[in-house]
Amino acid sequence: MTRRQALKVGAGAAAGSLFAPAITRAAGSTIKIGYVGALSGIRAAFGETESWTIEKMKAHLANGLDVGGKTYQVELVIRDNQSDPNRSTSIASELALRERCNLVLAQDGDGAISIGELADTRRVPTISTMVPWQGWFFPRGGNPETGFPYTFHFFAGSDTILQTFVALMGQVETNKKVGTLFLNNEPGQAFMDPQLGLPPLLEQAGYSETAGGGFPITANDFSNTVSAFAAANPDILTGFMYPNHFIPFWNQIGQAGLSPKVCAMAAAFLFPSGLEALGDSGDGMATEVWWSPRFPYGSTITGQSAEALAAAGEKESGRQWTQPLGYGHALWEVGLAALQRSGDPTDPDMVRDAIASLNMETVIGPVNFAGSPIKSVAVTGLAGGQWRKGTGKHPYELKIVDNTALPAVPIEAEMVPLGGA
Question: What is the per-residue pLDDT across 123-167, written as a single tens digit (0 to 9) for each?
């Protein structure tokens, strides 16, 4: 979504209201927390664990939230954007204008960018996550020295993800040729940026790139790019795509007779379901690791370790843990901590100031807005991982193989070539 599109937020429901005087929220004993996330649609895998987390938060808040000795009842306004930017725009208007939420939590990039302009104008404190911070910050015209008035974001940077990928590549002996392909959205554009993305990192590390460029979200035919890769014969494939893109892409790679030694694809291998869909060929796929049960951190809400949180999620949902489980939980940790530290959760300025001053450890690790050189952003760490055939209850298990960007996370295994895992 562009800045121009974001400025259209609320036009249908409240024409001309975008730059109207800020809404006055009556002081009272009830806090209203809005939530927007991709619970269905093409990004549904990112929201697969969210319903479970939301139910846990409802139970946690059933008796209210203590703020400075006063108990506030909490009303949750949960909205599914269905992975649709247009629906995100409508929800942004609803949460900020009609529901008049005291705090909005945005689980994905569409929801975060859609509500950004409106939240800043209407004084609605908003916290978002699960998209590289550059993809949230710069499309909105962010200035690192000033940030935004009421909107905040915590996540790793695209630079950290890419540096982790280069570190993973370096652990396997290859011909130093890399084929790249990226989904043409905000994170993908950041990844393929010729000055700040992956291309200069590859060049600095001595790799030669065959660039496949960007592709639209509806794509399922990658034959032209695969032909270019077949001519160059790279040992390494990398980029950014969702699982529904990777499956046809990988099938076409096989049909072309290519046998890469390393495949590190952002987003595509975050989820075990994506590996299972590949059958035996999923063995050895590499990925960024936002969070795993091996992270040595715990929840400020439940007191559970990362391992205990993952185990509880698996037991109650009947599904293997996924990385967004940690970040979805941490989003509530950060939001509730801000409300409790605000002194008055019904005062948007006090909530905003509480978010800006947060420096806390969550189940995903440190979240530090107070000490960040980029205002409105808390840059988090991540690790590098490789999927291996499971030896226990799961068909595939994710092993930590690189901790350059987050040394506190222990290494579990060595990176091995595809097919040799």
Answer: 999 999 998 898 899 889 999 999 999 999 999 998 999 999 999
Q: Which residues contact 105 (CB under 8 A, 6 or more apart)?
A: 33, 34, 35, 36, 126, 127, 128, 331, 332, 335
Measured N-to-C along each axis, helices 324-341 and 50-60 cross at an angle, to the nearest 10 degrees, of: 30
12 and 105 in a single domain? The answer is yes
Local structure of residue 305 (DSSP, 8 states): B
Let me know whether 171 and 50 are in one domain: no
pTM over 0.85: yes
> Quick one: residue 111, left, alpha or beta (phi over 0 = left, psi -120 to 50 = alpha)?
alpha
Give pLDDT tens digits for 95-122: 999 999 999 999 987 788 889 999 999 9
What is the rounded CA–CA span in Å between residue 224 and residue 61? 52
Q: ∠ CA(239), CA(402), CA(244), 5° rounding?
A: 30
299, 153: one domain: yes
Q: Which domain holds residue 337?
A: 3-157+294-379
| Cα dihedral 189, 192, 194, 200 sign | positive
User: Does a structural domain hold residue 340?
Assistant: yes
Q: Two tokens at 139? A: 């499309």
Angle of helix 324-341 relative to helix 348-356, nearest 10 degrees?
A: 120
Strand partners, 298: 305
- Based on the fold, state whether residues 181 and 313 are members of the same structural domain: no
